[in-house]
Amino acid sequence: MPKLRDAYGNSKSSGYTIDFFELTAPGAKSAMLASPFFSTYDPIERLTKRGCEVKLIVRLCSVTPPTVVAKAMADPLVTLRFFTSRAFHAKLYIVDDQAMVGSANLTSAGLMSNREVSIVVRKDRDAAFDELPGLFDLFWSHAGAMTPDILAAYQTAFRQIGNPKEEAEFEQYLTKLVGKVDPPSAMAGSDVMSKRRSFLEQLRRKYDEQVIPAFREVRDIMLESGLRRAEFADGDIEIELNRFLGWTRLIHAPGETWKQSTLVAQPERRERTLTYLRDWAQVGDTRAGDMYYAEEEFGNIARLREGFASVSTIEAMDYDQMFDTLCGCHAFYDMLRFVSGGLPGLKTDFAKRNTLPEIKATLAYLLHGDGLMLERAYDCIFDEKWKLGRFGENCVMELVGWMTPDRPPVNGRTLKALRFIGHDIAG
User: What is the pTM of this model?
Assistant: First the structure.
């Protein structure tokens, strides 16, 4: 077995940069990788196939193809963030207590054939190592969270401009679609994000780096185990998953008990999930304080997806139809807790807080507006122009989930259930 070198120069005599990843992968627990150019998944795969969790920062540019970005996004052990600016030049690779810094990008040429120079720094030997995780964290805190809608915009930019067009042209075009994401620089004050971008990044990181992977993990366990109920088996898996999580919250984690559950790693989360899925599959009545039986749930979600399918279908609704359709969102229906008089009381209260034109305008913008989905969701949660009374973050994100194929329906119950299972998510 070759030994890890102190320097790599991409030659037989000096060793190849890719060797660093192969030699550090066995037993590796975590890696922090930063590279402006990213065109091969090989070094990432060498780590994740050994169970190593990877934080990866890349630059979206004409050298980084969307296909390899999509592969990283699909890997459950990878969390991907990005910059769009050519000011991002760092090549920093930290695997547990060893790091490599130098000139090599995560490309086939950078790892194998270009004449690069990269040196290896070790925690147990080199004092400089202690500075490197902090430098990575600085980049990480300013990088953008990669989301499905940003990937879609990136794919559009790549088709329109693409490699090998001039970098400045690609960056300018991409910025129009996803915004400008700059790394911190040495300029005074340059490490301060705008308030809007800061809050938007918090929203992206919460849902795309924490919530969506947690949903996928539970969904995959449900599908692999076959622990599904007959009344849901022929329907959208998201409907049963949403109801399972809501039921878990009500039955197994009532009140504030969900907060007391310990955070655990994936193997123990899997065992917990299987325990609750077995209960779910065997229990006689899954309603248990929830609002719909299975057949009613299917109807409610179908009405949401049909009624809000386009701007024209939204515009065609009167207030009664609009209210009845919105009640298919559990988070909206749960607003009953804050009003008196049951559904009629909520219906009156919602009408007092929002006019029908305002409701239609917000839903049309949220579900069918221009720009990125999460930016529109942010506006509908925080911007006075778009936000509705009695329709906060849980309502917005659940509705987005029911209407968007690559996003799960998220509400307060499901978040608390995921936290109870052991996922690191705020309820």
Answer: 0.86
